[in-house]
Amino acid sequence: MRLTHKSRNALIGYSFIFIWIVGYLIFSLYPVFYSLYLSFFKVRLDGANIQMTFEAFNNFKAAFVYDPYFVEILIQYVMNMIINVPVVIVFALIIAMLINQDIKGKGFWRTVFFLPVIISSGPIIGELIDQGATTLPSISDYGLVNLILDNIGEFLATPVQNLLETILLVLWFSGIQILILLAGLQKIDRAIYEASMIDGASPWESFWKITLPSIMPLISVSVIYTVVSMSVFPLNDVIIYIKNIMLGESTIGTLTTGYGYSAALAWIYFIVMVIIIGVFIGLLNIKRRSRA
Amino acid sequence: MKLFKNIKAFIKDTIALFKQKQYKEIRHKFKRLFVGMKFMDGLLFKILIYTLLISLGYIYLYPILYMLTNSFMTMADIIDVSVKWIPSSLNWENYQLVWEAINYPSALLNAFILSIFPALSATVSSAIIGYGFARFNFPLKKLLFVLMIMTFIIPPQITMLPTFRMYSQYNLLGSLKAFIYPAILGQGLNGAIFILIFYQFFRMIPKSLEESAQLDGASHLQVFLKIAIPLAVPSIIIVFLFSFVWYYNETYLSGLFLRGSDLLTLPLRVDQYINNYTSIYPEGSRARELMQAVKLAGNVLTILPLLIIYFFTQRYFVESIDRTGITGE
Fold first, then answer.
1. Shortest Cα–Cα distance, B14 to chain A (Å)
2. What are A152-161's contacts with CB under 8 Å, separation 24+?
């Protein structure tokens, strides 16, 4: 039997991605569903055996009602994201634009700004945080910082303080984003700038009217990358909390923690993360539409 | 150098004009030099750019410099407040201590094995999968593609226990297989990114190249192996390097899956040694303070191989995104 060209093509396509489909079912889909399933149970591990009692939505309810820490950590995480993600993006954009200029030693500067991607690993960064190497030594010495912190209220002050304390770490998250944005900048035709210059546009204007709109899609990509990489980073407070709950079994009120509970926490966390991404992307799109 | 010549010519001209008392011309010249024709080519702009570059560069390098200098410090240096940046002598003892304690050469070999094989598997599989997505049309392609991207944003914490149980049932825990199997099926560390890189690259190969090969009787497999793969060498190198680096630095999954086995990533091994060692000494004792320097020495030893690899391959890393067109055409 002869297959049509189209279905033959489809078949060959499937055979190329076949390994991915198998891997997806085994290593991604099954664990995701299983963990969703477990999040509705109380789970006890006795060695290799697993004891489960159905709890319906109790785990999810407990996270918000009984757990004394989770909500607080989660709010802190959201605040940190709201502040850190724009900082990373703005810095990445500034650096990408700097490197994109006609400068001496382009390769050297690219190397410097990309270095963090190479050496960032949990223990090393943890160590640097412990030793206070992630804060610029001069930042905390200025009275100005305290003045600002005193005047913006505690709700905002804590994330801002966190940001200042870990500013280097936050900037270290921008290596890949710099590359993404740089690639975008290089694709913009220089002739457009020259034309606008002749029409009397200032560099400031051409940034807002040419550069930013052309790399907007890449800014969205960078935002997603930033949120994800910051959220799954092993030293993230929420991640540490979930991990501790998963490994240790303790009781909070009437609730027995353990895997079922931690699965519920992980799902709440994931949903919050997706909402954050959605809000950021939404904001970027509103801006774009209103400008067009 | 052109800049210096410009400045020299500028000074010469100014002096000449000054002698001729043409002050208006001088003002004009000044403006020309500092602000330029359109600001972007003036001296002021240059100064601004380099100031920003140097200060941002300092911010980026600060932790690394801190790590390097402090790792050489002796007990006396750490206690001495006046010694902040430059240790009084190059003290290799910290390094020696870590080197011997973790048996650095064998630990490094171990860590390399642990990163090279999963990285190789990930490279091979993502090239095949990326090619499939890029060059063929099939039902549900869009859906599968979205699912593939989704795997990137699902935190590993969600899938950890099921995966952990699955691994223990199939006796994969504590062995290299726990990393290789997912990688070879395209589900390794950051697998989606690699598939995306290959996807973007293979999409750029013109269809005519493929068609002319097929007219000559080449099968799809032959086109893939003989035409697509040789063209994709830069992408292959990039994916391998990134994958290698990410596996090398990995601590979360390896901490769980490889616990208690001889296989350990280098960051974890140093961490383990330091924790054991530190707990011997009482809180606040001097020896404990010295441990900080030892710890940093351990960290330097951990990242040193990566720095060396990076030094030789940096152009691939840095040019990666332009070359692979991750940005999407």
1. 27
2. A155/A79, A156/A79, A158/A76, A158/A79, A159/A76, A159/A79, A159/A80, A159/A82, A159/A83, A160/A83
Secondary structure element (H or E) that encloses residue A43, with its range: strand A41-46
Which residues pair with residue A41 across a beta bridge? Answer: A54
Burial class (CB within 10 angstroms; exposed 0-12, middle 13-18, buried 19+) of B36: middle
Tell me the pLDDT tens digit for each residue of B66-112.
888 878 877 666 666 666 666 666 778 778 888 887 888 888 888 88
Residue with tokens 């457009």: A192
Query: Given this model, what pLDDT does residue B103 score?
Result: 82
CATH number at residue A89: 1.10.3720.10
Which class for A238: exposed (0-12), middle (13-18), buried (19 or more C-beta within 10 A)?
A: buried
| Structural domain includes residue A139 | no
Cβ atoms of A29 and A249 closer than 8 Å: no
Tell the burial category of A173 from Cβ atoms under 10 Å away from its Cβ (0-12, 13-18, 19+). Answer: buried
Q: How many residues does chain B have?
A: 329
Total domains, chain A: 2
Q: Are residues A53 and A179 in the same domain?
A: no
Shortest CA distance from B297: residue in chain A: A124
pLDDT digits (tens, 9 = 90+) for B192-203: 888 988 888 888
Asked if A172's CB is within 8 angstroms of B63's CB, the reply is yes
Residue A199's domain comprises 69-117+175-235
Here the ipTM equals 0.79
CATH class assigned to B96-324: mainly alpha
Residue with tokens 């606008």: A196
For A54, phi then psi, to 5°, come to: -70, 135
For testing the chain A interface, which of B35, B44, B115, B159 should be mutated: the one with the most A CBs within 10 Å?
B159
